[in-house]
Design brief:
4 strands; 4-stranded mixed β-sheet; Plant basic secretory protein; Collagenase (Catalytic Domain); about 50% helix; about 210 residues; Uncharacterised_BSP
Length: about 210
């Protein structure tokens, strides 16, 4: 477990007040690490490079982003977004922290992995731990690597079709080689485009039913 630090740039902001009303920072960050590592790794292969995670709560556009070095990560979280999410503040805070913590630990094919897959895997973990927001919808997206929830549901479908542990294997395959779409054929026997076509057909059929 890395060391956790917290910086609040506007303690009077309504988003900061909501944050502290609904979560205990140390517990929320620890749970996000556990969720991330439980879905992407086993006890034998959890990365040990992340030594410190700094959570920065500040007014800013957007939702959140992760930056930092291999050993020291920073999660910047928008107080404005927390304020906008007041009606479901706890679930949204925990969901965003889980998503960003995945970025601290996941593999990225030496920086060559498509951004849509990176974001999709983060939301895939968020989906699996029951922290998906109500507006997420299965079957959305025009391409497999649209990212976020669109790719997250696609990855969940692949896991359902090909067996538990498939996305764990996908993450592991992104550890020490550059990205190539053949990774999907290696893991599933089908190309990612074949998988996407079948997923969309399945989603449409489910909607009709």
């Amino acid at each position: 477990m890395p060391n956790f630090e917290l910086r609040v740039e506007d303690v009077a902001h309504p988003g900061a007040q909501l944050f502290f009303e609904h979560v205990r920072p140390a517990d929320a960050l620890r749970d996000a690490v556990i969720s991330t590592c439980s879905w992407l790794y086993t006890l034998r292969d959890v990365p040990t490079n992340v030594q410190n995670v700094l959570l920065v709560l500040r007014p800013m556009p957007g939702v959140a982003y992760t930056t930092g070095s291999r050993t020291h990560k920073e999660i910047h979280f928008s107080l404005d977004h927390i304020q906008r999410s007041a009606s479901r503040a706890r679930q949204e805070i925990l969901g965003v922290l889980t998503h960003e913590m995945v970025h601290c630990f996941q593999y990225n094919a030496r920086g060559t992995c498509p951004g849509g897959l990176i974001e999709g895997m983060a939301d895939w973990v968020r989906l699996n731990v029951g922290l998906a927001p109500p507006h997420w919808q299965r079957g959305r997206g025009d391409k497999w690597d649209a990212g976020y929830d669109a790719t997250a549901f696609f990855l969940a479908w692949i896991e359902g079709q090909c067996g538990k542990g498939t996305i764990y294997q996908l993450n592991a395959a992104l550890n020490d080689r550059t990205y190539n779409e053949s990774i999907f054929r290696d893991l599933t026997g089908s190309t990612v485009h074949e998988l996407w076509r079948l997923y969309k057909l399945d989603s449409q059929a489910s909607t009709v039913r």
